Amino acid sequence: MTDWEGILSRDGPAVWRTAWRVLGNRADADEVYQEAFLAAVEYSRKHEVSHWRALLQRLATVRAIDKLRQRMRRRGREMPLPDEPLESSDAMPSQRSENAELSAKLRAALTKISPRQAEVFCLFHLDGWSYPEIAEHLAISSDVVGVWLHRARGQLRELLSEKNEVSS
Amino acid sequence: MNNHDGNQLDSDDLLAKSLAAINAELVPEGPDAQTNADLLAALRKAASKGRASRSMVNPIGLLQRALAMTFTQKIFATVAFTLAGMLLWFMFTMFSSVGYAEVAATLRSVHSMTCTAVVTGMANGKPTTMQMMFLDANHVREELPGSIVFISDNAAHRFLTLNPTEKTATVINFDLVGGEKNPQQDLDFVDQFHQIANQKGDVIGEQQIDGVTAKGFRVTQGSTLTTVWADAKSGALLRVEMTMPMGSTTAHVVLSDIVVDAKLDESLFSLEPPAGYTLKTQNESVNLNLDDNVVTVLKAYSAENQGNFPPRINDMSVLSKLIQIDANGQPTADSTKLGSAVGALFGLLFPQEKGKDYDYIPTVHLGDAGSIVFWHHDKDTGKLMAVFGDLSIKEVTADQLPPPVKDTEPTTIPAAN
Q1: Which pLDDT value is given to residue B332?
Q2: Which among A27, A38, A98 is the nearest to B64, CB-wise?
Q3: Smallest CA–CA separation between A12 and chain B, in Å?
Q4: Which residues of B touch A127 (CB under 8 A)?
Q5: Alpha-carbon distance B391 to B382, whole Å?
Q6: How far apart are the CA of A133 and the nearest CA of chain B, in angstroms?
Q7: Which residue of B has its CA nearest to A96?
Q8: Which residues, numbered 165 to 184 in chain B, qualify as contacts with chain A under a Cβ-Cβ cut-off of 8 Å?
Q9: Residue A146 Cα distances to A125, A150, B407, angstroms
């Protein structure tokens, strides 16, 4: 019998923060968090789970990217509704404004690249997973992780510079 | 898991800067206790049923979304600001109108009150329970699910939202403009209390509430149907039930656990954020001119819907979807104006009766200069004002008004047990 209470208490906050980093708002993070756990229930029926946090973070990342894409489809050119950015009060207002713009653009750009590449990008850059860890959980080689990451970065750079040119 | 394999990005790279911006955001600690409790219940259910689905978890309702999204929160704040006042207004005016002398006498001397309000019809049909506290009519504190707290100083037009989970305090200063009357007058509930309504309350019978024989009175004010249950012997207030249309849905509000003249510490109504909270201050301009707000909403909706107007003029759930975020992740100037207009419209139409005080004709199309899409009777000037399909605002005469349009009528709330 799985100790869901223990998993929630031990790994829940980290999984929720994974979703929040991708989405930037609480309501969507709550939904994705719940979906990730329910998906983990289904997964655990067919597979043995040795590392719950990693599984849940991966599921949360995949669903968070889906959620970003849904929002973009539903709202056309709009970005997902973010919470008011919570940043260090030390930051200057101009810096906070610039950071909010950069975050929003990157989140929007993530919806334009392949979901698989976006997933690898988020796990590496937002959750701090290593190549071998990503490779193990996605059942691919570290070389493939490197290739996808390289492609993701290239496409994201292009998308960000396009947006930059348009806005300037 | 913190091995980046030396894969550093060039610090001048726009991608690196964007990533740094996301990583600089202060991520909240985690989900709130209610979300975890709902999820744990769903996980146990899924484990026992042999399948898991999203429907097992309580949906994130409109209210929760409103609370979670800071910009939408501004709109909700406007609504809550109005709702709290209206609750008082209905209660005070109504008691004076039912001829129930003991109850009215008690309420005339009310200085403070606490109650539990259960609202259904705003959050995917799920009931939302909040604790409400009123001090001297102008100070209101509402404690909502998720430990969110709203505190308003209605006289100062200031509003404080506390989010204990994220340790954030948001002060909203409302700058009320427009409208023929002094806005302060609209918000002075004590004054409203003394301007007793002349409506008649119908006695609807008696029933037992918590072992006490309660006498019920029913009053219709605007589109809101209110039923009051008071102790048949002492006149003490036991329960108030209200039903009001809110756009496409009907909201039910039940007030119970009512304590009149409760001893309330003034610190509960302080607009100073507690120590350790990150303070944000917002200044919101709210236009109280009804026609201006109608035009703002119709313009925004029709621009996104091929010139069609919304099915209902005060449907928060539809109108809040129009809010747009710009490339900087901030609400656009138009959306800021729209947010205020939606909230103000909701509040301004709340006490008015559709078909009598105002009407809305959704079948009119943008640009139709000869058709009235909205009209209302301005009680201060005595004028009939209309908004036409080309979004012009003109004074009209009664014979120019279109036939009444049928809309959702308030339904009767089930009798309390």
Answers
A1: 63
A2: A27
A3: 7
A4: 1
A5: 22
A6: 8
A7: B21
A8: 166, 168, 170
A9: 13, 6, 60
Q: Reduce the DSSP state of residue B172 to 3 states and report it.
A: strand
pLDDT in tens, A133-160: 999 988 899 999 999 999 999 999 999 8
Task: For residue B396, give the H/E element and its range.
Answer: strand B393-396
> Which position has the token pair 């713009």?
A101
ipTM at complex level: 0.86
pTM as predicted: 0.49
Out of B31, B50, B65, closest to residue A16 by CB: B31
Question: CA torsion angle for B218, B220, B221, B224 (degrees, to 10)?
Answer: 100
Q: Which amino acid is at B100?
A: Y
Integer Cα distance of A23 and B9 in angstroms = 22
The answer to whether residue B394 scores a pLDDT higher than 90 is yes
Answer whether B19's CB lies under 8 Å from A153's CB: no
CA distances from B57 to A30, B17, B53, B149, B224 (A): 11, 37, 8, 24, 33
Residue of B nearest to A74 (CA): B321
In total, the C-beta contacts within 8 angstroms joining chain A to chain B are 189
Chain A positions touching B64 (Cβ under 8 A) are 27, 30
Residue pLDDT, tens place only, A49-99: 889 999 999 999 999 998 888 777 655 433 333 444 444 445 555 666 677
A116-139 residue pLDDT tens: 999 999 999 999 999 999 999 888
Neighbouring C-beta atoms of residue B17, cutoff 10 Å: 18
**B161 contacts B77 by C-beta, under 8 angstroms:** yes
Q: Is B159 within 8 Å of B174 (Cβ atoms)?
A: yes
B24 touching A (Cβ < 8 Å): yes
Chain B hits for A82, CB-CB cut-off 8 Å, are 325, 329
What is the pLDDT, as a whole number, of residue A150?
94
CB under 8 Å to B156, separation ≥6 — which residues? B271
3-state per-residue secondary structure call for B145-168: HHHCEEEEECCCCEEEEEECCCCE
Residues 6+ apart with CB under 8 A from B160: B149, B150, B151, B152, B169, B170, B171, B172, B271, B273
CB contact under 8 A, A2 and B47: yes
Could you give phi then psi for residue B176, rounded to 5 degrees? Answer: -90, 125
Residue A30 phi, psi dihedral angles, 5° rounding: -60, -45
Q: Does the beta-carbon distance from B2 to A128 stay under 8 Å?
A: yes
The answer to whether the CB of A63 falls within 8 A of the CB of B104 is: no
Cβ contact, residue pair A125, B27, below 8 Å:
no
Are the Cβ atoms of A20 and B27 closer than 8 angstroms? Answer: yes
